[in-house]
Structures are given as C-alpha cells and as structure tokens.
C-alpha cells in the first residue's frame, strides 16, 4: 500500500520504517531539511534498538523515502499518518497546533480519496475536529481514523511489529477495511484489531497511560509504607503479581515515572476532565505523589551527610528516564540532580546513552565521566537513577575501592539487600530495609 507519515519523531519514524518492512511504499515527511537529508543518507536520528537495521534495509529496497514536501507525501499516499508532536501547554492541555496546521494544509491540497490517520496522542474529539477542518476545503471524499500508538521507547520496533492489539477508531467501513488490510501482517499471531468509534479510541490511549502511571504510583506508595512498617516491597510485589487480575508487570517501585508520555498524558487527561467540569481526583494524587517520589531519596542522602553536602561528591549512575533510551524528558535523575546541586553537592555522572542530552541541559554544572567506574572515583556515595543492565552486576571490590565511603542510594532496587549487607555497603533502596546505615 502507499503510505505517508507526517512527522519523523519516535512514533513517525518507527511507524514509517515498520510499515515499509511489510512491503508498503512509505514516504516520511518532515519540515526539518537537515534531518531529512541525514535520513536520506541512512542515518537514524534517534537511538532506538533494532531500528537501524530495518531503516537501512528498507531505504535500500526503495520502500522508505524522505521528503520535506507535504505535496509529494500527499500525492503518493492513500493512507496519511499524522505523527506530529502534541506537547504540553502551560495549563497541561495537549497543544494541537502542529497537528491542526498540517491538517489545514492537507484539506487544501488533497484531490483524491485518502484516509487521514491520527497516530499522535490527541484529546477526545480531535478526529471530529480534523474531519471538520479538512471538510471545509477538500474537493474529494476522505476519512479520518484514530489509531493510537502504544510504543514503549527502547522496545518500539518490537511493540510495532508484534502489537498486543491494534486500536482503530473509525466510523467508515471503507477506511476500516484499508486499515485492517494494512495491519494484517502484524496480527498473524491472533492478537486483535479492535474497531471502535473515534472518541473511544482517542480515550483508550489516555486511559491506558494514566492507568499504568497510577499502577506504578500505587506501588510507590506501598513501597514507602513498607519502609515505615518494616515490610519488603519485593515480597509484597511478588505476592500481589501472582494474582492474574493484578499481573506481574508495572509493579516495580522506584524514584517515579518519567518520559515523554506518562507525565504529559496524565496531565492532559486531568485538564481534559476539568474542561468538562470533571475532577479526576485519582490523577491529581498520581501527579502529586510522583513529583514527591522523584526526590524521595534526597532527604535520605541529606540526613546521611548530617545535612551538609557542601564539598561532598555524589556519583550518579543512570540519567535517562529509563534504560535503553537516550531520552531524559521528565527523568527523575534531573529532579534528584537539581536537588543535590542546590545543596551544594558535586556530581560525577554517567549514562550509557543520555550523556549528550544531559550535557545540553546541565552544561558545566556536572562532571561527565567516561565510564561507570570513573564516575565513582573519589565520590562519597553512589546514587542510581536508571536501571541500565550494566549497573546490575558491578565489580563490588572496584566499587568499594573507588568510593570514599561504600554507600549506595539505589532508586531502582537493583541489588539484593542481603548481598549488599554482606558486602558491607551502606545500602538504601525503595521500600526495603536500609542496611549498614
Ligand atoms: C509508555 C507506555 O508504556 C507506552 O505504551 C506509551 O505509548 C508511551 O508511554 P515509555 O514512556 O516508553 O512508554 O516507557 P515505559 O517502559 O512504559 O516506562 C514509563 C515510566 O515508568 C519509566 O519512567 C519507568 O521507569 C517507569 N516504570 C515502569 C516504573 O517506575 N515501574 C514499573 O514497574 C514500570
């Protein structure tokens, strides 16, 4: 099939590449000329595992092309995906200006039937708005479909190629049939394509992300309570997770959720609710708890150093909001580091992928280390903010030798408490007993 994808961020690029992989002819459109040129030369502009291989293969096969021309994209495609940013407005609402600007142009430019697909996370009612804008100008038939993405950064290619479900919000049989044909290679395993009205599809995305953010936040509260009463959140989690109604996943406590989706989507859903005079009380709590959780280790570090961090050096492992990404948007590491800098601590930081992004943000306020062990040299404690695999099995004796004191504040519960106790580390984690304190 002939596809265009407008916008080549995470979602657009993964969507375009994976659709090309199943034999479709895909043109990706972006206004950023330099980025388009780089992509034409085979350079993937983001870090996303497995994307490069598919990217190169499909460019070579002439199925994946890039342009800055919306006209070219529209002339080519029967299905046009909108994968444009919907950033947060000051009031928390999703900013639809990128989407609606492009939609206006599409309305003015199309001359034959097309399906316009909302892939971006957009508030309920956006498909209706998009339809109205195109209808004002278009001389031909068209349909608007809501098809939210559920891609996790770091697993986006896998999630796209083997989705647990595809949601199609459509009230047109013609468009639904085209979308089902397009997605049929991805659901051979029997996973469902669920067709519903546009508004329900739009809300499915927000409801899913808000639910997952709530699930994590609930566990973070249980973890904090575990510390008060001497219970172990690992054991509580294992006990809860075996109940199939609860499930094992997304029960891992830590220093809060971050990223480009959960924080933005929870706020947007809350704002959308208040626009309809509906107060999402649960989401207010989730937002409040998560912002406290991001800095939950700060007072503990302060207390350990007798409320005086001046002249102390803290090594920080993990800066990305989660492993397998260079994305630092809303990363808990940022809140922790800002808090520590305010307390006059010096920071020696390391992350396998996110160093360039953190450098852009923090400039010369931090010391950037070449390796995880270099970050420890002469530090008074180690703080872990992201659970990269390489941090899971460190050389303990190297760690002890490099640090001034064998002290670890672990925001992601990477190690066994009893192992750390036996190794002689002062070890403070989330929802579990602190040892050698
Ligand atoms: C999320 C959704 O999973 C995806 O479906 C949606 O389309 C986009 O948003 P992503 O933001 O890439 O994906 O990351 P995800 O792996 O879901 O993690 C989100 C945050 O929750 C991270 O900060 C992670 O550290 C945190 N998290 C996750 C926990 O704190 N505990 C958990 O048990 C799981």
UniProtKB/TrEMBL annotation:
The protein, known as: UDP-glucose 6-dehydrogenase
Family label: Belongs to the UDP-glucose/GDP-mannose dehydrogenase family.
Domain of life: Bacteria
Catalytic activity entry: UDP-alpha-D-glucose + 2 NAD(+) + H2O = UDP-alpha-D-glucuronate + 2 NADH + 3 H(+)
Binding site for substrate: 150-153, 205, 250-254, 258, 322
Domain UDP-glucose/GDP-mannose dehydrogenase C-terminal positions: 315-417
InterPro entries: 6-PGluconate_DH-like_C_sf (IPR008927), NAD(P)-bd_dom_sf (IPR036291), UDP-Glc/GDP-Man (IPR017476), UDP-Glc/GDP-Man_DH_C (IPR014027), UDP-Glc/GDP-Man_DH_C_sf (IPR036220), UDP-Glc/GDP-Man_DH_dimer (IPR014026), UDP-Glc/GDP-Man_DH_N (IPR001732), UDPglc_DH_bac (IPR028357)
Pfam hit, one: UDPG_MGDP_dh_C
Residues where NAD(+) binds: 30, 35, 86, 121, 153, 264, 329
UniProt KW keywords: NAD, Oxidoreductase
EC number(s) reported in the record: 1.1.1.22
Pathway terms, separated by semicolons: Nucleotide-sugar biosynthesis; UDP-alpha-D-glucuronate biosynthesis; UDP-alpha-D-glucuronate from UDP-alpha-D-glucose: step 1/1
Residue numbers annotated as active site: 261
GO terms assigned for molecular function: NAD binding; UDP-glucose 6-dehydrogenase activity
GO BP of this protein: polysaccharide biosynthetic process
Major enzyme class: oxidoreductase
């Amino acid at each position: 099939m002939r596809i265009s994808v407008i916008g080549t961020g995470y979602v657009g690029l993964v969507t375009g590449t994976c659709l090309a992989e199943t034999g479709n002819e895909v043109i990706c459109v972006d206004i950023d000329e330099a980025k388009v040129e780089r992509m034409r030369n085979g350079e993937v502009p983001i870090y996303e595992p497995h994307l490069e291989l598919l990217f190169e293969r499909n460019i070579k096969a002439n199925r994946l092309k890039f342009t800055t021309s919306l006209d070219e994209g529209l002339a080519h495609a029967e299905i046009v995906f909108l994968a444009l940013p919907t950033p947060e407005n000051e009031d928390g609402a999703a900013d639809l200006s990128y989407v609606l600007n492009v939609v206006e142009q599409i309305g003015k430019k199309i001359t034959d039937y097309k399906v316009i697909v909302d892939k971006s996370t957009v508030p309920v009612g956006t498909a209706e708005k998009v339809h109205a804008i195109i209808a004002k100008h278009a001389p031909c038939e068209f349909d608007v479909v809501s098809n939210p993405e559920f891609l996790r950064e770091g697993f986006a290619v896998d999630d796209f190629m083997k989705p647990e479900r595809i949601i199609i919000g459509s009230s047109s049989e013609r468009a639904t049939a085209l979308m089902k044909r397009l997605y049929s290679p991805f659901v051979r395993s029997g996973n469902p394509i669920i067709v519903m009205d546009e508004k329900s599809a739009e809300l499915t995305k927000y409801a899913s992300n808000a639910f997952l953010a709530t699930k994590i936040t609930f566990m973070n509260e249980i973890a904090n309570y575990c510390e008060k009463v001497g219970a172990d959140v690992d054991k509580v989690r294992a006990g809860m997770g075996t109940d199939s109604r609860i499930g094992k996943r997304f029960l891992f406590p830590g220093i809060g959720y971050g990223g480009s989706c959960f924080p933005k989507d929870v706020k947007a859903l809350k704002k959308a609710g208040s626009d309809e005079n509906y107060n999402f009380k649960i989401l207010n709590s989730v937002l409040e708890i998560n912002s406290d959780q991001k800095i939950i280790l700060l007072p503990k570090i302060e207390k350990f150093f007798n409320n005086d961090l001046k002249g102390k050096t803290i090594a920080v492992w993990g800066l990305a909001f989660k492993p397998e990404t260079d994305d630092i948007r809303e990363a808990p590491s940022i809140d922790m580091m800002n808090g520590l800098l305010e307390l006059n601590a010096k920071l020696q930081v390391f992350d396998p992928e996110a160093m360039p992004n953190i450098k852009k943000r923090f400039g010369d306020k931090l010391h950037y280390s070449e390796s995880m062990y270099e970050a420890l040299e002469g530090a008074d404690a180690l703080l872990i903010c992201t659970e990269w695999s390489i941090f899971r099995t460190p050389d303990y004796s190297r760690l002890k030798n490099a640090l001034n004191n064998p002290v670890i504040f672990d925001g992601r519960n990477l190690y066994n408490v009893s192992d750390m106790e036996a190794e002689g580390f002062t070890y403070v984690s989330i929802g579990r007993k602190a040892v050698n304190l």
